[in-house]
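User: Predict the complex.
Assistant: Input components as received:
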Amino acid sequence: SQTIHQWPATLVQPVGSPLSLECTVEGTSNPNLYWYRQAAGRGLQLLFYSVGIGQISSEVPQNLSASRPQDRQFILSSKKLLLSDSGFYLCAWAYPDRGTNTGELFFGEGSRLTVL
Amino acid sequence: KQEVTQIPAALSVPEGENLVLNCSFTDSAIYNLQWFRQDPGKGLTSLLLIQSSQREQTSGRLNASLDKSSGRSTLYIAASQPGDSATYLCAVGNNNDMRFGAGTRLTVKP
């Protein structure tokens, strides 16, 4: 069966510090991978998605970046955090090739980031 | 760009009531539509997925319908229970991504 792991679960960082959130998927190959952010009381905002190693699409211009160094690994980073980066970050995956798959999205448990 | 709206933003009902949550979207050229449940501080749990060629899906007390032409989906919850209290999110799939509504926060009172 497929599983998705996301860490750390909770993070408190000072303004200006770097960030690295990691997400890995097990039990499938070449998944589509996604990073979403959920601000308090708001819906999910798509930040990045990837359909393959080294292929990253950015949805929102900001001081965050994403990388996919391995097939089932997706990393969200920042060189200098802002107060506005606080939120709940969720990684998700879906089977590739929507022509033959349902496109169902599966989520990790999330990482709560507080920037002070 | 796809816009997804969920109404109402919050809903409180007594236990046992049947209820309907609404989701609307602006671009009818969708690939699929997925309903999720989110408990406070947790990730999202998939409830139902409707493919663009389907009209509805059912799982237990849940039934989701899709009307692409009007850009609408509904999630029907029968015989609500306190354990159904959570935020329900609708997500619409286009191309390789999914766009989310802001959710409906449901409270079922015992």
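The first strand of chain A starts at residue 3 and ends at 7.
Let me know if you want any component modeled separately.
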